[in-house]
Design goal:
Length: 169
């Protein structure tokens, strides 16, 4: 593990570098020429963080779920109603979480039982397990994106063609 001269707790430098992302606070560096004209930027208020990180994303999720359920409420051209949009939303939102949890559980057990045996022989065993986890996670994300596109693909084209008028001058 890499250590830093001013770091007494592992991960402190990483956590400190994330503070400006959430709060907007950036401490002025002493003697740094670009920081001479600007003062310290104040912390964002807790209401601003609560709104931007909690309330607004929940509002957007509810808005998109309502829009998706509206689009899926129309019958197909053959008169049948499509499957429940809530089930499709659950598959697309919970599927990647379950996929990654299953991968991590299996790789944890592999590391737990094979790691002590293989680590002296293969010193990069942990890196290989991490690589496998990342690759399978990316494959899962691509797969669930393909499922999302297959759920939405024909629906949006059909909805636009059935419910819009294109006027050509």
């Amino acid at each position: 593990m890499a250590t830093h001269g001013r770091m007494s707790i592992p991960g402190l430098v990483t956590a400190a570098s994330r503070v400006p992302m959430i709060t907007g606070y950036k401490k002025k560096k002493l003697g740094h020429p670009s920081e001479k004209l600007s003062g310290d930027i104040p912390w964002a208020g807790w209401r601003a963080v609560l709104f931007s990180e909690v309330i607004f994303p929940i509002f957007m999720a509810v808005l998109f779920v309502i829009a998706y359920m509206f689009i899926k409420s129309f019958p197909n051209p053959d008169g049948k109603y499509p499957p429940s949009p809530i089930v499709r939303i659950a598959v697309n939102s919970l599927g990647p979480i379950v996929w990654n949890a299953a991968i991590l559980l299996v790789l944890f057990l592999v590391s737990l039982f094979l790691g002590p045996m293989l680590n002296p022989t293969f010193p990069k065993f942990g890196s290989v397990i991490a690589f496998i986890a990342h690759v399978l996670g990316v494959i899962g994300m691509i797969g669930f994106f393909k499922i999302l596109v297959s759920f939405l693909g024909s629906t949006i084209i059909t909805f636009i063609s059935n419910h819009s008028t294109i006027v050509v001058p």
